[in-house]
Design a protein that fits this description.
The chain is an alpha/beta fold. It folds into two domains: about 1-135 and about 295-310, Aspartate/ornithine carbamoyltransferase (Rossmann fold, 3-Layer(aba) Sandwich), CATH 3.40.50; about 135-295, Rossmann fold (3-Layer(aba) Sandwich). Helices cover about 45% and strands about 15% of the residues. It is built from twelve helices and nine strands. It has helices spanning about 15-35, 60-70, 90-100, 110-120, 135-150, 165-175, 195-205, 215-220, 240-245, 255, 280-285, 290-310; strands at about 45-50, 75-80, 105, 125, 155-160, 180-185, 210-215, 225-230, 265-270. It has a five-stranded parallel β-sheet. A four-stranded parallel β-sheet has the order 2-1-3-4, with helices on both faces. Helix 1 crosses helix 5 and helix 6 (about 165-175) runs parallel beside helix 7 (about 195-205). The protein is globular, with a radius of gyration of 19 Å. The chain binds phosphoric acid mono(formamide)ester and norvaline. Norvaline (NVA) binds near residues 165, 229 and 233.
Length: about 300
C-alpha cells in the first residue's frame, strides 16, 4: 500500500495485479468498518477537488460522501464555473489547484485531458470517467464480484454491447486479475485496438483470457457474470438512432442469460435503459446486483482515496 501514496489513478493498466487486489481487499475492509460504525479519518484536513465536464449521480455523490467519511472534504467543480470553461490552460489549472488541494478527481471527454492535468498537478489525480476508461467503476465491480463469488481468478465475464470506456476498464481489470472476459459487440463497435492488445498481453502474463466476438451467445456461454452498458454513452447521444439499429440483437434478455451459469450475476454500471441494452426482467431479476455495484463505488473509492492521499 505504501507504494500507492502520491500516485495517480488514470487507468488500470498502470497498476499491478497486486495493487488492484490490494485496493479491492481494502475496499471490503473499509465497507466492514463503515457498517460497524467505526470512525476512520485518515484524510482529516484534506480536500479533494472534483471536476465534472459530464453529468454524474453515482460518481459525484460517492466521492463526496467518501471524502466526508474519511474525515476530509470534497469540492464539486463544474466545468462551466471554472476558468477552464473560458479557455484557461489545463497546465495552469493543474498547477494552481495543487496549491490548494490534496487530490483531484476529474470526469471529462478526451482521455488526454486527464493525462494533461495529471502532468500539470503535483497531487494525485483520479480518473472519474473519460471516453476511454472508467477505472473506479471497474474496481467497484471487481469488489462486487469477489464479495458474491469469492476469489476472482478463473471466473468468466461476458460483456455485451458497446466497446466503450466500461468495456475497456473491465477488460484490463480482468486481464490483470487472471479472469476470462469475452466481449461481444456489433461490427464497428469493437473496443479500442490498443486497449485490446494491451489487455491480451496482460491476460497472458496473469493467466487470464480476453476474447472478442460479434456473437453474444458465444460470449455468454458458461459465464459467471453478464455485464452490459448503454448503447450510446455520454457525448454520443446524437448517434442514438443509428446505434439502436446496430445493437438490436445485443439486448441482454432472458433468452441470452439462459446460456450463462444458473447463478450468474447481472451487472450494469448504471444509468441503464430498460428495454434497450437489457430487458426489465433481467435487470430487475434475482441475479441482478446493480445496486450493490453502485454502493461499492463508495467503498472502492474510499480505498483509492485513502491509499493515494493518506
Ligand atoms: N456509473 C457511474 O459512473 O454513474 P454516474 O454517471 O451517475 O456517476
Ligand atoms: N459508458 C457510459 C458509462 C456511464 C457511467 C458513459 O460513458 O456514458
Amino acid at each position: 500500500a505504501a507504494q500507492l501514496k502520491g500516485r495517480d489513478l488514470l487507468a488500470l493498466v498502470d497498476y499491478t495485479p497486486e495493487e488492484i487486489q490490494y485496493l479491492i481487499d481494502f475496499a471490503i475492509e473499509l465497507k466492514a468498518k463503515q457498517e460497524a460504525g467505526e470512525v476512520y479519518h485518515p484524510l482529516k484536513g484534506k480536500t479533494l477537488g472534483m471536476i465534472f465536464e459530464k453529468s454524474s449521480t453515482r460518481t459525484r455523490v460517492s466521492f463526496e460522501v467518501g471524502m466526508y467519511q474519511l474525515g476530509g472534504h470534497a469540492l464539486f467543480l463544474s466545468r462551466n464555473d471554472l476558468q477552464i470553461g473560458r479557455g484557461e490552460p489545463i497546465w495552469d489549472t493543474g498547477q494552481v489547484m495543487s496549491r490548494y488541494l490534496d487530490g483531484i478527481m476529474i470526469r471529462t471527454f478526451g482521455h488526454k485531458n486527464v493525462i494533461d492535468i495529471a502532468r500539470a498537478a503535483t497531487i494525485p489525480v483520479i480518473n472519474g470517467l473519460t471516453d476511454l476508461s472508467h477505472p473506479c467503476q471497474a474496481l467497484a465491480d471487481y469488489q462486487t464480484i469477489q464479495e458474491k463469488k469469492g476469489p476472482l481468478k478463473g471466473l468468466k465475464i461476458a460483456y455485451i454491447g458497446d466497446g466503450n470506456n466500461m468495456a475497456h476498464s473491465l477488460m484490463m481489470g480482468a486481464a490483470k486479475l487472471g479472469m476470462h472476459i469475452a466481449v461481444a459487440t456489433p461490427e464497428g463497435y469493437e473496443p479500442d485496438q490498443e486497449v485490446t492488445e494491451l489487455s491480451i498481453e496482460h491476460a497472458a502474463l496473469n493467466g487470464g483470457k480476453v476474447t472478442l466476438t460479434h456473437n453474444p451467445k458465444e460470449a455468454v456461454a458458461d459465464a459467471d457474470v453478464i455485464y452490459t452498458d448503454v448503447w450510446a454513452s455520454m457525448g454520443f447521444e446524437e448517434e442514438q438512432a443509428a446505434r439502436e439499429k446496430a445493437f438490436a440483437d445485443f439486448q441482454v434478455d432472458e433468452s441470452l442469460t439462459e446460456l450463462a451459469k444458473p447463478d450468474y450475476l447481472f451487472m450494469h454500471c448504471l444509468p441503464a435503459h430498460r428495454g434497450e441494452e437489457v430487458s426489465e426482467g433481467v435487470i430487475d431479476g434475482d441475479n441482478s446486483v446493480i445496486y450493490d455495484q453502485a454502493e461499492n463505488r463508495l467503498h472502492a473509492q474510499k480505498a483509492i482515496l485513502a491509499a493515494l492521499m493518506g
